[in-house]
Design brief:
Helix content: 40-55%
Order of helices and strands: EEEHEHEHEEEHHHHEHEH
Structural class: alpha/beta
CATH topology of the largest domain: Nucleotidyltransferase, domain 5
Shape: globular
Number of domains: 2
CATH architecture of the largest domain: 2-Layer Sandwich
CATH superfamily of the largest domain: ATPase, nucleotide binding domain
Radius of gyration: 20 Å
Strand order of the largest sheet: 3-2-1-4-5
Number of strands: 10
Length: about 325
């Protein structure tokens, strides 16, 4: 008998639904929100309203693309957290209601664990144990993945995340939101000719707050002398700040590989879609004899396919959730 799992992701500003059958993704549909662009960041109230409008048609489309009817579902997996509370409430409430109506299991999923599970979607999968560098707008972590549901965090950011550093740097340069992909695109036309400090943080933890401050002061200093400095040097500035963020990430990942002796290395999360990070990781893999794993771009940003994959492993282990579950905006892993 087939295991058919509907997964729902609504942690931030993307409404996503996916169908998984016996460990294979049949569909992955995402409705993105453009309403936040003019505000330079996600507005939580607007995000939750958009989720309410998007969730039903998104789920219906995912079922249609997969060729699966509602009555064929074996379970409903959903993002419990972390994320924006209003956004999470929409996804959690929908999942609970549908599971109750169909009398099928409900499976809660941790958003950051699910990003790691994106590495299990392609045919080529890492062997256990492996290291995962998980980088997003809200989190930056290095984990040892001992098994599908056995994840040990060995390094994390002490303040800001890598994705936030990209977005805040873009805001300082008056780039549109989200700035990460814009910086990536502009950086491809420039060279990293400007230098920025690397935080002196011991161990495997990260810090990006100091880099953001240094970048702001760099811009202020040059703009004071030349008001057109940013526009005249935009590709090179983008290449330079991107190169520093990437080097911070990979220097810590390289240290983790040395300390653990693990050569199976993967990246996940929204920032793992950055072209320079993907290229630099491949280069590190060749020079350090790593086996490198990078998810396809559609599974890097917030998506329900990764929720479905995590839900599949939990389903097989009978790790079900009862109907009293509530969203966790700050769900500490």
């Amino acid at each position: 008998m087939s295991i058919n799992i509907l997964a729902i992701e609504s942690s931030c500003d993307d409404t996503s639904a996916a169908i998984l059958q016996n460990g294979r993704i049949l569909s992955n549909v995402t409705a993105s929100q453009t309403v936040h662009e003019k505000y330079g960041g996600v507005v939580p109230e607007l995000a939750s309203r958009a989720h309410m409008a998007n969730i039903v048609p998104t789920v219906e489309l995912a079922l249609k693309k997969a060729g699966i009817s509602v009555d064929q579902l074996s379970a409903v997996a959903f993002t419990r957290g972390p994320g924006l509370l209003g956004s999470l409430i929409v996804g959690v409430s929908f999942a609970k209601g549908l599971a109750l109506r169909l009398d099928i299991p409900l499976i809660e999923v941790h958003h950051m664990q699910a990003h790691i599970h994106a590495l299990f979607i392609p045919e080529r999968k890492p062997s256990f144990p492996f290291l995962s560098l998980t980088v997003s707008g809200g989190h930056t972590q290095i984990s040892i993945v001992h098994g599908p549901l056995d994840i040990e965090i060995i390094g994390r950011t002490r303040d800001d995340a890598a994705g936030e550093a990209f977005d805040k740097a873009g805001k300082m340069m008056q780039l549109p939101y989200p700035a990460g992909p814009v910086i990536d695109r502009l950086a491809s036309k420039g060279k990293p000719i400007f230098t920025f400090p690397e935080p002196n943080i011991p161990g495997l933890d990260f810090s990006f707050s100091g880099l953001k401050t240094a970048f702001l002061r760099f811009l202020q200093h040059h703009v004071k002398n030349n008001p057109d400095f940013i526009q005249e040097n935009l590709p090179d500035i983008c290449a330079s700040i991107q190169e520093r963020i990437v080097s911070i990430l990979l220097n810590k990942l390289r240290l983790a590989a040395v300390q653990t002796g693990i050569k199976e290395i993967g990246i996940a999360g929204g920032v793992s879609g950055n072209s320079r990070l993907r290229t630099a990781l491949q280069e590190h893999g060749q020079s350090h004899n790593w086996n490198v794993y990078i998810p396809p771009l559609e599974y890097c940003t917030d998506n329900a396919a990764m929720i479905a994959m995590c839900g599949y492993f939990k389903f097989k282990n009978k790790q079900f959730t009862n109907q009293t579950v509530t969203p966790e905006a700050r769900w500490i892993q």
